[in-house]
Amino acid sequence: MDIRIDAHTLKRAEERGADETEIRDVILTGEPIPAKKGRLARAKVYPFGRVRNGKSYEQKRIEVFFVK
Question: Phi/psi at 38 (nearest 5 deg)?
Fold first, then answer.
């Protein structure tokens, strides 16, 4: 599958703690989740073990909404 991610999407993902490699992995191997307006969506949980915005998290969940 040819996965194209625009620059704005990558910037927003990085602001939210995800990177391009994780986005691609979620699309290819994540669990399907409900989406609206003809979109598809997948989610995946990754080990994290860090502090983000002053709060400690052992895991992070990444959800990706996309179109085919």
Answer: 75, 10
